[in-house]
Every structure is written in C-alpha cells, then in structure tokens.
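Lab notebook: predicted structure, single chain.

Context: the supervisor wants predicted structures on file for every construct in the current expression panel, including those that have not yet been purified. This is the next one on the list. No modifications to the sequence; it matches the entry in the shared construct table.
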Amino acid sequence: MDTRPILKDAYERINEGVHRVTDGLDESALNWRPDADANSISWLVWHLLRVQDHHVSHLAGTEQAWTGEGWADRFDMDADPEDHGYGHTSEQVAAVRIADPQLLCDYADAVNAGTLRYIDGLDADELDRIVDTRWDPPVTAGVRLVSVIGDDLQHIGQAAYARGLYERKT
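Prediction complete. Output recorded below exactly as produced.
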C-alpha cells in the first residue's frame, strides 16, 4: 500500500485547520488566554507549526523553514531552531504574540510545502528508518510522522476551543 496519499491528506488537514481556526481573528483574539496560565491561539498554532517544521525537516535532512526561509525574522522571534515551545513556561507562552493571523497561515503554508515534498519522496524503507533510539521500541520515521499528525490535530482542536471561549466571552 502506498501510504503517501494518506499522509499527505492528514497534513493538508492540519494546514486547512490552521487557516480555519485563525480566519478573521484580530490581535486581541489571537493572543487572548482563558486564564493566566492557559495557551493562546497564537501560541498553540505557532507551537504546532514549529514542531512540524522541526520534526519533518529533521526527518528530511533539510533546514527548517523557521531559519532557512526567514520565518523567525518575520515573527520577530529568536531563530533558535530547537525552540518549538515544548516545555514553555507561562511567561514564554505569553511572549508569543502574533498580530496578524495571515503570518501564521503563511508559515503554515511554508511548513506544509516542506512536509509534502518530504512525503513525496517516501518509500517503505524510509518509513521504517529508525530516527530515535531513546524510546523502546525505537521511533521510526513513519511513527514520527503519525506522532506529529496526532499532536498537531490536538493543538488545532485546542485552538478551536479557545476561539469558541473567546467568541462566547465577547
């Protein structure tokens, strides 16, 4: 079975979800947090894109769009390729403030394009390639791709929930 169409469909759904959840939002809505320690829509979407960019570029052996295509500069953020939000404190979450949803959508499109290029070149051997031996069983490229899909879809759902809370509040 050729798994590429299934993987591409899943990643296209992530990209569409980013566009959908940010559509029509202003700076206030993007950066609103349900409480002082909750994640904003800006942070959730930025984080899911950073993780996808980080993980898939690692699999592909390419530079992240974050650094290679200048997205860190466009976001006016640190270009540290290892900063993708995992383990961020409440203060670090609050520091991720996005004024325009189009910036998130454009970054999503760039990350998605890189992901789809990688998927186009996949074969069974690549999917079975071990990419992380810190786990038992070791993580393969295929498992890593599915892991990113799962995490990204959860974060899109969280962003949609936060959007609903914001819209009910206003």
